[in-house]
Write a structure and sequence with these properties.
Length: 112
Amino acid sequence: MQLLTKKITEMAHKQYPKGSDFDQMVVAKFFDAFGSWSWYLMNIDPADDDYCWGIVKGFEVEMGSFLMSELKSLKVKPCEQGNLVLRIERDLYFKPTKAKVIWDKLLAGEHV
């Protein structure tokens, strides 16, 4: 699956000057198939499409940078036996949402 589309990349580039400002949109959601980690993309450095900024829900809910190359290379193996390997996916049904709304829902333990 293609994690970034042209439209998502363009929206994320436009928001790059806003940095960590909550008054911007989360433009895409990426997740592992088991739902333990999610990445909510807010912006991408126009000079380096690998450098992303957003909200990350893992062991904690945090805001910070992540690398698109790492998301593309991650492989999740659901069990020790067997050859099944899953990759990070983009939520095709996610609609751009204000970062503050996502942040508050995640801190409240709600599914986004």
